[in-house]
């Protein structure tokens, strides 16, 4: 075997134009698992002078989950900035730009004015798409540049020359418009590297020299076929692909990106291999979201970068835990409990780490100081040897109890939980530790006050949905004069939302000025509340008058209808922000919950319109 480093760019690589597509059937038989071949060429690692991460959470990542709202995109973009954008390690993030919502996401993130992650776009290989990029004043865009014969022949129905000319023409037009093209060499690990990819790269580098602008190339392992093994042959060798682009086509390493997929469980190691062999950037997504099996987990790339460089200040790794909590609580995404760095139990062990010995032997079983680096204490394993202090530690840590709710080993319920654990070992000769689910069941049994009930969740949901609607209603100028237009606005609103039982507007003295009764069968009862009725002593009136804000009351039974209702009220203000009245609404809880899904979507759309 030889260690080979070719000094490239000296020879011109000719495009090869086969009559039939080259599908590498010896490597990709389709009816069998793909094959790995070796040609005994070994390459020495030589990382790029600057290594960095690029993000595709909002592009490739969004193809694997329900689309994010604009607010969610903005929140996640803020996380990316705090995680590694501050230092420039997360250098860029790419966005779709096709829909009005896509463009609103771009505008919202640009308004943050963060230097990194730089907001870039992604388009198909068409001039119409490129015009969108120009019109939105991007200075860099990704462009779909499919390079395997699977795509060129079987999808595009083109010859290699036709495909190459199309890609080069589009890159040239981008440069003419002052836009840096980032050519995404789609399906590169099934492509003819010497017969198509390198000749195309050479032409792109010639465009770069003529324009004086970079032309970037993203090496896309679309199907996850890349392998990191020393001596592996093209087109599957990650090492060989990266270094042939640098040595043979004169592509600067800092203009190369690796974009992988995890079809064969190699997405992270392939990305790191690309770094080690000269690729400047590795592209990933938060938590590895991506079409099919996903992309390189961006948080794992940051950890590996620090491991390779020793640059502890390059990323704020504690943000990973905040991200995980946001994805679970706000986006309702279940992170596997053993998922590295972000899963609930990733740093837990069943090897006997107990609270009394935690300080003494934590390092034996913990990968690093997770409390310091991820703001995550080490979970303990509950067995018959744990003791009451261990039960208290488990409750405080795993249920994330606030300081005012934390328990000690002296708490009576802790003792009852401990007794139940011991009974399991004494009564059935149990030898295994208690799982999280078992401990949670015991905690709910003996300390139910620590858990939100299903009814609590319903109340919270009802309050949140109703609040968003009432805030918007309170902003209508029709309400300011308490006249016929105000009543018409209330009638229109109540008609649209059938879960409303009673909708009413008072002045600053708490006197009823207009109201809408939605159900005729209760009209007579509500008419016992005539105009100028005095509501000044009611909680729903007093608090908005004191705060100028929204107020949500607890659920109660309506004296008029007998239904469970929730009252939401909000101050009505004029252009000078002076309070002129209070609007209140009684909402039937059951009816609201029936429309919850549609209301979530409606509220989300309205939120995006407000950004």
TrEMBL record:
Keywords: Transferase. GO terms for molecular function: transferase activity. Residues 51-321 form the Pyruvate carboxyltransferase domain. It comes from the Bacteria. The keyword Transferase applies. The keyword Metal-binding does not apply. SUPFAM superfamilies: Aldolase (SSF51569), Sensory domain-like (SSF103190). Belongs to the alpha-IPM synthase/homocitrate synthase family. This is Citrate (Re)-synthase. It comes from Candidatus Desulfovibrio kirbyi.
């Amino acid at each position: 075997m030889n260690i080979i480093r070719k000094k490239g760019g000296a020879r011109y690589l000719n495009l090869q134009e086969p009559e039939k597509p080259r599908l590498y059937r010896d490597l990709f038989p389709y009816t069998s698992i793909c094959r790995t071949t070796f040609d005994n060429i070994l390459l020495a690692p030589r990382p790029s002078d600057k290594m960095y991460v690029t993000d595709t959470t909002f592009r490739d990542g969004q193809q694997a989950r329900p689309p994010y709202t604009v607010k969610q995109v903005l929140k996640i973009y803020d996380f990316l900035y705090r995680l590694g954008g501050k230092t420039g390690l997360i250098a860029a993030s790419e966005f779709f730009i096709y829909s009005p919502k896509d463009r609103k996401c771009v505008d919202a993130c640009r308004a943050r004015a963060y230097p990194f992650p730089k907001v870039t776009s992604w388009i198909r290989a068409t001039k119409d798409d490129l015009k969108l990029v120009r019109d939105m004043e991007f200075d860099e865009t990704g462009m779909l540049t499919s390079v395997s014969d699977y795509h060129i022949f079987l999808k595009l129905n083109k010859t290699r020359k036709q495909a190459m000319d199309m890609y080069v023409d589009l890159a040239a037009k981008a440069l003419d418009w002052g836009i840096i093209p980032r050519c995404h060499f789609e399906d590169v690990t099934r492509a003819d590297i010497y017969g198509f990819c390198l000749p195309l790269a050479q032409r792109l580098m010639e465009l770069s020299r003529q324009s004086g602008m970079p032309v970037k190339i993203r090496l896309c392992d679309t199907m996850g076929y890349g392998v990191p093994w020393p001596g592996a042959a093209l087109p599957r060798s990650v090492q060989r692909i990266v270094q042939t682009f640098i040595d043979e086509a004169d592509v600067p390493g800092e203009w190369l990106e690796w974009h992988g997929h995890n079809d064969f469980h190699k997405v992270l190691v392939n990305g790191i291999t690309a770094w080690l062999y000269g690729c400047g950037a590795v592209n990933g997504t938060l938590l590895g979201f991506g079409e099919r099996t996903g992309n390189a987990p961006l948080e794992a790339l940051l950890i590996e970068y620090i491991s390779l460089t020793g640059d502890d200040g390059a990323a704020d790794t504690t943000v990973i835990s905040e991200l995980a909590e946001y994805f679970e609580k706000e986006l309702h995404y279940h992170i596997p409990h053993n998922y590295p760095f972000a899963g609930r139990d990733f740093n837990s062990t069943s090897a006997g780490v107990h609270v009394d010995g935690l300080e003494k032997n934590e390092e034996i079983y913990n990968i690093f100081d997770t409390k310091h680096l991820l703001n995550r204490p080490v979970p303990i394993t509950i067995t018959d040897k744990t003791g009451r202090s261990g039960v208290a530690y488990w409750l405080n840590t795993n249920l994330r109890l606030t300081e005012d709710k934390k328990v000690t080993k002296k708490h009576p319920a802790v003792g009852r939980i401990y007794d139940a654990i011991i009974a399991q070992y004494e009564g059935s000769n149990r030898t295994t530790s208690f799982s999280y689910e078992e401990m949670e069941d015991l905690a709910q049994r003996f300390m139910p006050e620590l858990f939100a009930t299903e009814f609590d969740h319903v109340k919270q949901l009802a309050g949140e949905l109703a609040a968003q609607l009432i805030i918007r209603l309170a902003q209508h100028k029709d309400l300011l004069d308490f006249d016929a237009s105000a009543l018409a606005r209330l009638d229109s609103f109540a008609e649209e939302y059938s879960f409303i039982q009673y909708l009413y507007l008072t002045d600053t003295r708490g006197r009823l000025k207009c109201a809408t009764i939605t159900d005729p069968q209760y009209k007579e009862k509500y008419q016992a509340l005539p105009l100028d009725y005095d509501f000044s002593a009611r909680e729903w009136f007093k608090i908005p008058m004191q705060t100028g804000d929204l107020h949500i009351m607890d659920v109660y039974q309506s004296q008029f209808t007998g239904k469970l209702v929730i009252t939401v009220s909000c101050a009505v203000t004029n252009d000078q922000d002076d309070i002129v009245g209070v609007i209140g609404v009684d909402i039937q809880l059951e009816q609201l919950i029936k429309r919850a899904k549609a209301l979530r979507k409606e509220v989300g759309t309205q939120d995006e319109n407000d950004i």
